[in-house]
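In the current project phase, the collection of sequences with tokenised folds has grown. A representative record is quoted in full directly below:
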Amino acid sequence: MSKNNNNNLLENVWIVRLISLLVSILLFGYVYSENYGLSTTNRNDAISTLRSETISNLPIQINMDTDRYFISGLPETVMLNISGPESVIVQTLSASDFNIVTEDLDLLGPGRHTVQLRVENLSEELTYQIVPSRVNVQIEEKVTIESSVEVRFDTDAVNDAYISKEPILNRESVIITGPASTVERIDRIYVRVPSENEITSTLKGTYVVQVEDEARNKLNVVVEPQEIEVQIPVEPYEKTVPIRLVQTGTPVSGKKYQLSLARTENVVLTGNQKLLADVDEVVVEVDVSAIRSTVAVTAAVLPLDLAGTDVVPKQVEVNVTVENTQTEETSERSNQTTNTSNNR
């Protein structure tokens, strides 16, 4: 009888549903307790946990009229140590919207000063330390000048049969800006054109402008533009010299000669400039042996006994003016008198 009653209870649908509901409530309570109870604990731990963080290589924002003043001695970057609630530090590092700034340097004016650095836009819940927090700087008035640029080039690197001409720059001058004390030290502004030996062709390139003091120290100034295009023409060496006319041969009896150049009075020499350094003229010889009356002749320019040299032109036109000498004129008058007597 008892066994049958138990089976009836289990077969009752409502009894089964009630048992299932109770089990579900128990499971829900267990899961809720495990998850939400632990999560709340973790959040509380995160809020209450303190943390420190070090941030390196932070640039410094200069609070100054940089169009009017120039500052030196300020480091490019500093290190920042921050401490506080972990949650605030995580947000701060993620946003990265804080800055290292100087005090208002315009209020200090020119001179040597100790400047205090501070952090801007940092949560009040955090404490911080800047390393270094104070720096010694010098503030000077900014000066701007315009100056020409010298081209430094070793002309000895050019082959002896060639010569370098005046450099051609895309900018003849540059703008120099810097502290007054530095600008006053400027001794030369130049570009250096590097070269190899035995140059035989034009050089062209872009080169950095150098600014130095008298002791050849590079100066901390702003150069605009910082680079300049330079072209150095290299051409075959040429030298122009006059022509010297020389009469040769045996003159016709009773005749005298005057030589003059018809057109060209100079020639152009090319070749090794060291060999041509002592050449001041070229010679043209005119043979008058068979010339009896005024005439124009073509004569050759005597070649130079120098290796690798040339002359242009190689021939010139020479006017040969012929005149009778006094003996010839007397002889002619005597012949005329004799002829007249014979005719009588």
Summary: The domain at 50-142 is CATH 2.170.120.30 (RNA Polymerase Alpha Subunit; Chain A, domain 2). Helices lie at 2-11, 13-48, 86-95, 180-183, 273-276, 326-343.
